[in-house]
Design brief:
The chain is α/β, with parallel strands linked by helices. It has eight helices and ten strands. The protein has one domain: 3-Layer(aba) Sandwich (Rossmann fold), CATH 3.40.50. Helix 3 links the parallel strand 2 and strand 3. It is globular, with a radius of gyration of 19 Å. It starts with 15 loop residues before the first helix and ends with a strand. 37% of the residues are buried.
């Protein structure tokens, strides 16, 4: 009998505000994910931890009528919103959305070992046993099938000129991950996880997510980071990782920094791809 994986907590929650943040974030990064996936049409795709399924629907459009896409999401609120958004644009028929856990994928017996691609984005940083998730993804694809992992290494974030106190605030935010059983640095481990899970790593790269003052995307990039940190305030303070006054003052500095004409925001999403051996 398989042991119970360590419990972990998704720090950001599923409030309407968080769903709006995720929707905006998807608008920035989905094109990059699709570009790196290189879907040609006709593939069968499993999207693990699909969230609001905006990328999942884009995959379904890319694989076309001869392809197939299954999205798996654990949180009922996220899944309900994903289905609502799909229905709103008459795309609910494009994909199969299922409630289920990344540890125990809700697949039928004949689906195991049948997918061309298993994909997960921003999932492994929020689970206690990422290797177990990747092993399941390897088992879900056919021999020669692709396993694609996209996730964060939060340490790569750079702001310049850096706002006063920001490094300490970001360090406190990263500490909330490991205190809750998550891994803020899992992005650097993706190739290793593929190897340990029995896949053959074939590629790793970055998807750049950043901007600078005067770019059309800059305000939204800054607001995304502000929203993340505001949402983590309660957890940071409850864990005594930062003084409340210091947190609030630093966030004020960060918001003001977002108005500087020389401000630059650098971040990259880690990408790794492996194949299941024949």
């Amino acid at each position: 009998m398989a042991s119970t994986p360590p419990e972990a907590t998704y720090i950001h929650g599923t409030s309407p505000e968080e769903q709006r943040r995720l929707s905006v974030l998807n608008g920035f990064i989905n094109d990059g994910s699709l570009r790196e996936l290189g879907l040609r049409g006709g593939e069968s795709v499993l999207d693990v931890g699909c969230g609001l399924a905006q990328l999942t629907r884009a995959m379904a459009r890319a694989v076309g009528a001869t392809g197939r896409v299954v999205g798996v999401e654990k949180d009922p609120a996220q899944l309900a919103e994903a289905k609502r958004q799909a229905a709103e644009v008459n795309e609910e028929q494009l994909l199969d959305l299922r409630e289920g856990d990344a540890y125990t994928l809700p697949l039928f017996e004949n689906e195991w070992g049948a997918f061309d691609i298993a994909h997960a984005r921003f999932v492994l940083e929020h689970v206690g046993d990422p290797l177990r998730v990747v092993r399941g993804m390897v088992q879900a694809v056919r021999p020669g099938g692709r396993i694609v992992l996209e996730d964060d290494d939060h340490e790569v974030l750079r702001l310049h000129p850096e706002p006063p106190g920001f490094r300490s605030l970001w360090e406190a935010y990263m500490r909330t991950y490991d205190r809750l059983g998550n891994d803020p640095y899992v992005g650097r481990r993706l190739v290793s996880l593929l190897h340990q899970a029995g896949a053959r790593p074939v590629r790793n790269t970055w998807i750049f997510f950043g901007s600078c003052a005067s770019q059309p995307t800059f305000d939204a990039v800054v607001n995304n980071a502000l929203s993340i940190l505001r949402g983590a305030r309660e957890t940071i303070l409850r864990q005594s990782l930062l003084d409340p006054a210091v947190f609030d003052e630093t966030l004020t500095h960060f918001a003001a920094w977002g108005k500087r004409p020389d401000a630059a925001f650098w971040f990259s999403i880690c990408w790794a791809e492996g194949v299941r051996p024949a």
